[in-house]
Amino acid sequence: MKTKLFVSAMLAACAFAFTPVVAQAEDAHVAPVREFISQNVEGWLTDPVVVSAIKEQNAKTAGYDQAAIDKLDKDWRAQATAADKPMVDEVLATPLSKFLMEKKDGSQGMITEMFVMDAKGLNVGQSDVTSDYWQGDEAKWQNTFAAGPGVVFVDGVEEDESTQALQSQASITISDPDTGEPIGAITVGINLDML
Q1: Does residue 67 sit within a domain?
Q2: CATH number of the domain bearing residue 134
């Protein structure tokens, strides 16, 4: 019994001792991602195309309850991989989505994806089809829009299944340039292999 307790204590101590090193290695991407966002993304988040699209959708979705949001999300998920996808096609055809596609294309592979969310966490525009429509239950929205203006949240490192590149998502609160009030958020996928 004493041997088991000793071994358990030693294993716990070793795990604790190595945790900061692992955390530092995992977090090494945060500063370069924040710098990229500051230099290449934040400047156009007040563009009228971005701000007007979010405000317009916020006016439309302000009265939506959770049941309405869940139905939209369910419909989107069903359409995302279907041949017939009117809801997805409608979002991809918006001026905001076209704006995001141009920004992504102009990044020469540095940006892997982008999508803008409204005050409910619902997609407003995107460069690529997302798997879901509602982001309000995820950290990318909860740690930005729900946290207030000026927030940048950098998520962990993932491997993109299609490209095998390492990437991280950075999410930023988008505020109304006239009032400073948060109106939505954007998530930007960054190709870490190019940083």
Answers
A1: yes
A2: 3.30.450.20
Question: pTM of the predicted model, to two decimals?
Answer: 0.85
Instruction: List, for residues 72-127, the tens digit of each pLDDT value.
Output: 999 999 999 999 999 999 999 999 999 999 999 999 999 999 999 999 999 999 99
Domain encompassing residue 85: 29-194
| Residue 54 in tokens | 């979010």
- With tokens 């699209």, the residue in question is 53
State how beta strands 152-159 and 166-175 pair.
Answer: antiparallel
Residue 12 domain-assigned (yes or no): no
Instruction: Answer yes or no: is 37 within a domain.
Output: yes
- Domain total of the chain: 1
DSSP SS3 for 114: strand
Q: Determine how many CB atoms are found less than 10 A away from the CB of residue 185.
A: 31
Displacement of CA 194 from its chain's centroid (Å): 19
Q: How far apart are CA 36 and CA 192, in angstroms?
A: 11
Around Cβ 118, how many Cβ atoms within 10 Å?
28
Classify residue 172 as exposed, middle or buried by CB count within 10 Å of its CB (0-12, 13-18, 19+).
buried
Rounded average pLDDT over 28-44: 95
Pairing verdict, β 123-126 and 152-159: unpaired
Q: Pairing mode, if any, of strands 111-117 and 182-191?
A: antiparallel
- Cα torsion 124, 130, 133, 137 to 10°: value is -110
